[in-house]
Write a structure and sequence with these properties.
Shape: globular
Order of helices and strands: EHHEEHEEEHHEEEEHHHHH
Largest sheet: 6 strands, mixed
Distance between the termini: 28 Å
Structural class: alpha+beta
Length: about 350
């Protein structure tokens, strides 16, 4: 269940629609055709997600014999088709095979499960041991990865702009965190609440990477999707939490449009009101909090964000100021009037979000 009166799962992709739209208009068919196919796939899956929301998705329970507080992962091969889930190729406890994509997906699901369990005591995405399913090799040159409300799906990329979407573990963590949000605050996927939805996924995606690499806040790169861009692209990742707007500046993709502060908030009707763009503002706030507190970001900074996400006070249509106010309250409740509270208050002030 969600804290806000029922499931409203959304179709969430790691690559924003505005990026694929730009690629789809490119004169080079090696770039435009995969982007167009990807947009068509996304449109189909988005419609399927809406239908599932209306008629209801089947309840999924841990299988008989599943060990409590242990992941239950199943990886499927879509074999470049669009039918999900595909052919089962690896299940929990089985040894790695020859397909590196399958192995990376399996490991990424495990890394996500471990962070939520070890850091926050959460048993899988729904808190009740939900099995973690993923399909790889989806579509032909599919330029995206997504959580469809029930499972993860990964494309192989076109090898011109994007590489295999299982390469960055934070991409896996990002998409699975949409499932956590679905089962908790259930943030509406439009405008500021949608940007918060995306930001929460970036935050915990980054924390999953940092946790798996054993990196402190000072050591982390704070990039989302590092290693995903093909060599021809002038850029380092899809997004930067440390410096929003600097992840790429490429003759094909254009320049990273993310703002770091409210002064540059982007008003647009595209991308559900700019959910992948304006997420840079709360992303940067978290980066500022985590680096000001120091140490491991998944501990105190991550705990504050997790407390807000799961605390029951965050409404579906929350705006940045609502979320910021709740982080201040959460920091004070858990850590008192110390460094953590001051870091949270200062960070939101720096990005121009007023706490109420």
């Amino acid at each position: 269940m969600t804290t806000n009166g029922g499931f409203q799962p959304v179709f969430c992709t790691i690559v924003p629609p505005h990026v694929l739209d730009k690629l789809a208009r490119n004169e080079d068919p090696a770039l435009s055709l995969p982007a167009r196919r990807s947009l068509e796939h996304d449109a189909y899956q988005r419609t399927r997600r809406r239908l599932t929301t209306v008629i209801g998705a089947p309840a999924v329970a841990p299988p008989a014999g599943a060990v409590a507080d242990q992941p239950h992962r199943t990886i499927y091969d879509a074999e470049h088709q669009q039918d999900l889930p595909g052919t089962k190729v690896r299940e929990e406890g089985s040894e790695p095979g020859q397909d590196a994509t399958v192995n990376r997906a399996y490991a990424g699901l495990g890394a996500t499960f471990e962070l939520y369990l070890k850091a926050y005591g959460r048993n899988s995405i729904d808190g009740e041991g939900l099995p973690l399913d993923a399909s790889v090799h989806f579509g032909t040159d599919y330029d995206n990865a997504f959580w469809n409300g029930e499972q993860m799906v990964f494309g192989d990329g076109d090898n011109e702009i994007f590489l295999d979407f299982t390469i960055p573990v934070d991409v896996i963590g990002h998409e699975l965190t949409h499932g956590v949000t679905q089962h908790t605050a259930n943030l509406a996927y439009f405008g500021e609440s949608g940007a918060l939805n995306e930001s929460v996924s970036d935050v915990f995606g980054s924390l999953i990477k940092q946790y798996s690499l054993g990196q402190s806040a000072a050591e982390a790169d704070w990039l989302i999707g590092a290693g995903l861009l093909a060599p021809r692209v002038t850029g380092t990742a899809l997004r930067s939490m440390k410096a929003p707007g600097t992840a790429y500046d490429d003759d094909v993709l254009g320049k990273d449009p993310q703002p770091a502060t409210m002064d540059d908030y982007v008003h647009t009707n595209r991308d559900n009101g700019g959910v992948h763009i304006n997420s840079g503002i709360p992303n940067h706030a978290f980066y500022l909090v985590a680096t000001a507190i120091g140490g491991n970001a998944w501990e105190r900074a991550g705990q504050i964000w997790y407390d807000v996400l799961t605390g029951g006070d965050l409404t579906e249509k929350a705006r940045f100021a609502d979320f910021a106010t709740l982080t201040v309250k959460a920091a004070r409740a858990r850590y008192g009037a110390g460094d953590e509270l001051q870091a949270v208050q200062k960070a939101w002030d720096q990005v121009g979000v007023r706490t109420l």
